[in-house]
Design a protein that fits this description.
Number of strands: 16
CATH superfamily of the largest domain: Zn peptidases
Number of domains: 2
CATH architecture of the largest domain: 3-Layer(aba) Sandwich
CATH topology of the largest domain: Aminopeptidase
Structural class: alpha/beta
Strand order of the largest sheet: 1-2-4-3-5-16-6-15
Number of helices: 10
Order of helices and strands: HHEEEHEHHEEEEEHEEEHEEHEHEH
Helix content: 25-40%
Bound molecules: zinc ion
Radius of gyration: 24 Å
């Protein structure tokens, strides 16, 4: 049955390249969402637009049974494309540098295949979400009642993964992507003459001590069995050789995989800043922002995701470790069991001349793996819906 997916590929590749040429930013995916909604309607699906902003949900029902959610993200990045490809972005400063054009096309391919074959009993909800890149489109859909309006026993997504060769797939039970937090610290002295430091709190010195202290938090305040990252990425203050500035600003990021570590870092960071500023006679202002939580797969669904990948001929293995990048599918996984899969994009490998990481100005989804993603989504739906319906 999966062989018929091959017939869909030329049209899916054309569709994907059209999206690539017409990228849209977070919550501005009007053209993309419109094309997706039209395509789903043509297939006879029940289509809901404007879910969580520009999100689209297509519902395919066939008999009684469980319900599964399959998710793709539709947004591009605010960056210049430099690929020089015939289907390169037509818009300056917007680029499908994360391959979400491929995700959208693959999920649409799965919808086409399942709509015409209907070899399942139950409901498939095709979830096309806006704004994965930093704006939390998944959370917007969840807040808009995604899972109340479209109940799902489990939810699945994939990401094209350039560090993995084509034909391979990885996921793991537990965390697969990190929580991403940001901190902005303002250290307030008073400002004064640099020749009279005894009369002025030294915000530069306090900032320096804070940078050093923050770099000890992961090693000293987190369980050694867990992992986390804290990086100070900006330090700004002063403009002269003989003036002590009134303020110094620090910014940085924190990545973690579990709520205990995340809470511990946030509270230790605030304590450190407050204590060091107090000792230096400065005041501190700390804004700690949690963007995305960790993306945490449930064990049963991670195993199903790998079985689905293996069943369509992919080399499917448990990922040894999670990635420190983050992903807003995390918000959906907080609500429902599910799993997130890395789909190999190779043959490009790290170190080879044509290797392009995600978010590279020349990044382009590899159309050669389009069929892999379509088949995986179809196989996931098949395995999920073949299970005994859950008791309400
Ligand atoms: Zn991205
Ligand atoms: Zn992405």
């Amino acid at each position: 049955m999966t062989d018929t997916i091959d017939d869909l590929l030329p049209e899916l590749v054309r569709f994907r390249r059209d999206l690539h040429a017409h990228p849209e930013l977070a919550f501005g995916e009007h053209r993309t969402a419109g094309l997706v909604a039209d395509a789903l309607r043509e297939l006879g699906l029940e289509v809901h637009e404007g879910v969580g902003g520009t999100g689209v949900v297509g519902v395919l029902r066939h008999g009684e049974g469980r319900a599964v959610g399959l998710r793709a993200d539709m947004d591009a990045l605010p960056m210049e494309e430099r690929s020089g490809l015939p289907h390169a972005s037509l818009f300056s400063g917007i680029h499908h540098g994360c391959g979400h054009d491929g995700h959208t096309a693959m999920l649409l391919g799965a919808a086409r295949h399942l709509a015409r074959t209907r070899g399942f009993a139950g409901t498939v909800n095709f979830i096309f979400q806006p704004a994965e890149e930093g704006k939390g489109g998944a959370l917007a859909m969840v807040k808009d009642g995604l899972f109340e309006r479209f109940p799902c026993d489990a939810v699945y997504a994939l990401h094209n993964w350039p560090d993995l060769p084509a034909g391979q797939a990885r996921t793991r039970p537990g965390p697969i992507m990190a929580a991403a937090d940001r901190f902005d610290i303002t250290i307030k002295g008073r400002g004064g003459h640099a020749a009279m430091p005894h009369r002025t709190p030294d915000a530069v010195l306090a900032a320096s001590q804070i940078v050093v202290q923050l770099n000890t938090l992961v090693s000293r305040r987190i369980d050694p069995g867990e992992s986390a990252v804290l990086s100070v990425t900006r330090i700004e203050g002063g403009h002269s050789h003989n003036v002590m500035p009134a303020e110094v600003a620090l910014t940085g990021t924190v990545r973690s995989f579990d709520a205990v570590s995340q809470d511990a870092i946030e509270s230790a960071l605030k304590d450190s800043v407050e204590g060091l500023c107090h000792a230096a006679g400065c005041e501190a202002d700390v804004v700690y922002t949690r963007y995305y939580p960790a993306t945490v797969n449930t064990a049963v669904e991670a195993s199903l995701a790998l079985r689905a990948a293996a069943s369509v001929g992919l080399v499917a293995e448990v990922a040894e470790r999670p990635a420190f990048t983050s992903e807003d599918f995390a918000f959906m996984l907080r609500e429902r069991p599910g799993a997130y899969l890395w789909l190999g994009q190779g043959p490009r490998r790290t170190g080879e001349a044509d290797y392009r990481p995600l978010h590279h100005p020349c990044y382009d989804f590899n159309d050669a793996v389009m069929a892999h993603g379509v088949r995986w989504f179809v196989a996931v739906a098949g395995l999920e819906l073949a299970q005994v319906p859950r008791l309400a």
